[in-house]
Amino acid sequence: MILTNIPGVIGWILLYYAQSATILCVSIIIMGFNVGFNFGPTYSYIGEMTEPRLRGIMASLLSMAVMTGSLLTFALGSMLHWRTVALVNACCPIICICLIAAIPESPIWLMAKGKNDEAEKAICWLRGWVEPETVKHEFLELIRYNERSKTQVDADSEGGLLKKLAYFKDPSVYRPFKLLMIYFFVAFIVCIIPGRPYIGKILTEVGVPTNQGLYLIIFAALQGIGSVVLMVVVNRLGKRFLTLLTLSINSIMLLLFGVYTLVLKNNFVSSTPWIPLTILCIIYFSGSCGVLSIPYLLTSEVFPNNCRGIATGVCGGLSNIIIFIITAMYLFVENVLTLEYTMILYGLVGIFGLIYFYLYLPETENQTLLEIEEHFT
Predict the structure, then answer these.
(1) Given CB 3.0 to 4.6 Å as the disulfide criterion, which of 19, 21, 231, 234 pairs with 56?
(2) What is the per-residue pLDDT for 157?
(3) Is this entry keyworded Acetylation (predicted)?
(4) Is 197 in the same domain as 250?
(5) d(CA 374, CA 370)
(6) Within this chain, do residues 82 and 192 fall inside the same structural domain, yes or no?
(7) Whole-number Å distance between alpha carbons of 19 and 1
(8) What is the pLDDT of residues 108-130, one digit of tens each?
(9) What is the DSSP string of 90-101?
């Protein structure tokens, strides 16, 4: 995780000194690599070092940090020059490096390397500098999980990349992997991720041509608030319930948005800006409360230990590819279907996701990593 933050420092500094479009593109590409590099180890570490009762809260804290960072960047951008914002943001990965250097390695990773004594010390540190006797039960459970996952000494180094990719033939890997890929696709659709670069165009089309910058800040703020709500309630309500609830809300809102746009364009109603704005606010808030954030939480816990790192990284990379593809296709889809039917289509995708997750999404909250792995085996 220390190494993965270095591209972030380089990218923001390049952006600060950029004097041409080429340097701007290079800096954005480097920062894109930084996001991708961070995804796998960060969520893997959270999944491995937290207790089952806290895993959802800790993983949702990461989502909240992302939403908060976006909001602060929007706010700073409205007050400061963009170069100053870039310089401020360059400090974030430097702070991350300093903080990460102070925490221990994952206990499960240490066990996989045969360093059980160091793993026990790491658990004691992570649980609040307690005595080994206090974490004895958890330590023995992790040893059993390590043996069950067959991740003894040098297991990760044997066979290299090809062997790690071969893990995806294992049902305990490809079943959660398939579930997550479908989840990411549905979540991005029902939260209108493809339309975000064109949100100004969408607002203008539904009769909200002014104050769009303010509305973008409001949307970002609602996402941040939603991620805080998720962190508070995920342990009590569970990821499955929150998925079904927020997916239902977003699907209904998308269908309503499509119907409103349809009747507006056919002059059945006059332009009423508060209606589309309210719908979009609900979509952004509801999405960050559940369906948009939960797939990232699941990546930290659904894969077996012997391939969690690479499986989580592949999920993160493919999720970004999905975003790229559906965003690149958005204007084409809207030109073919028009805005109203695009939103209705997105709502129908949400209904498909609702049925699929009702049938196949397990509850992982408060479950041990071993219990989750056994479910998918």
Answers:
(1) 234
(2) 46
(3) no
(4) yes
(5) 6
(6) no
(7) 30
(8) 888 878 888 888 888 898 888 88
(9) HHHHHHHHHHHT
